[in-house]
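The passage that follows is intended for readers who have already worked through the single-chain material. We present the inputs for a multi-component assembly, then the predicted structure in tokenized form, and finally a short commentary. You are encouraged to pause after the input and sketch how you expect the pieces to fit together before reading on.
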Amino acid sequence: MATRHYHHHYHFSYVTSKKRHFSSLLIVIAFITLILLALFRVLTPQNTVNLKQLSAEDLFFASFNTLFRLFVSYVFALILSVPIALFITKSKKTERIMLPITDIFQSVPILAFFPIIVLAFIKLQMIEGAVIFILFMAMLWNLVFSMIGGLKTIPEDILSAAQIYKIKGLRKLWYITIPSIFPYIITGSLLAWAQGWSLLIVAEALHSYIPNGTITQDPLGLGSLLVNAFYNGQNSVFLVSLTVMILLITLINFFVWQKLLHLAERYKFD
Amino acid sequence: MINPIVLKNIGKTYFGSKIPAISDINLEVKKNEFLCLIGPSGCGKTTILKLIAGLEQPTGGTIEKPANVGMVFQSGALLPWLTVEENVAFPIYAKGGSKEKAEDITNKYVRMVALGELKLKYPRELSGGQKQRVGIARALASEAEVLLLDEPFSALDPITTDELHEYLLKVWGETHKTIVMVSHLTEEAVLLADRIAIMKDAALKNIVEVNLKRPRKEEDKKFLEFLEKIKQELISN
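Having made your guess, compare it with the prediction:
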């Protein structure tokens, strides 16, 4: 019975799902924009956490902030990676020109131009923007290259069928291209998040890039807690932050990635 | 009666190749007929089908064909994330058809190829033969005047192939579509076709009328004699 219910859920879902998907996308984009605006306005670069008296509330907000930064960076990277990957694979000519260029871009260490970006964002009073930009840049290329890999594996017959049945433009993107590369988007996303977590300690420890910078200039997050606790010899804070980070990574892996990897199986061609 | 497909002096040389895939092809496909293109691998059969489908453009000559054609692929070309009925309904939605229209047409063709009980299954849950039946139903659902079949049964076992031959003839009998099918099996062509176009070395060598009564049986003497005649044509050309 469970199987029938599952099938029923997808029963002739086309016409309604198109509207639903597009409106959901608009709502998500609007939601993110609002949250970002609020974040940039409300959050100040001042970090008032006292490492010697770290409360559970501080730890909760640090975790929330970190997750939120990663999420926003990921959404931006995901949205931008689709047109980039589509443009690169548009024709053999664009591929020949664009692939080496993007390869160089992704090889340039993000940290090489990190201080410049940080200073630019600080001038604009947007510390959060600096962190999100760094994480976004770190995540983007994993997604782009995974999508390129996926786009190149769409079977020729599927593309021919789309052409014969005159499925073009956005309709083709939504109904053929995106589902075809869905498994690659998931693996790319996994790698992107892994990259994000590993760059967190650099992205959130901003003060080391600012001349005469202090810990108060770091945005509150698990990354900045880890770095500052380590340099200040606060081993218990360091261990607690590390544990929370590992716990979050494990939970996200269990409740998000494992489910999505399982779902991706349905989108794989024989 | 106007012939739905007319190929005049058609040539095709693929980009980067000096040898033409086909040259100077003249072929008229009659309305409601079942035409089979046969010949050895690389003789240009699939190229002709792709030109009729509009997937390739000729480098010479002219093609007259309907705007809408349906195609059945060797691989099935089904979308793995859609159920049987959603795959069949796909061409209707692609043309902006309503949900009701899609349901009506889909139910009709899904029943025609006896997939009614499997309509909520996903392609991975189907056998090779069932997948091809979905491919046939999808091509029919496009409501195209012409059906193109690119070696649709070549990857299937003989029993399933026989079964699908019956389904195809049933569908053809009920819908009166014009069918152009590529095959590398002479037996298949003699069993199914009204006419057989024999190709070799990128050229159309001969078109033979199959004047055998239907239903045809592979063990009949006349069938075997005709088969031998076609095989001789293939060798002698």
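Commentary: Chain A touches chain B through 29 residues (CB under 8 Å). Residues 56 and 244 of chain A are 11 Å apart (CA to CA). How closely did your sketch match?
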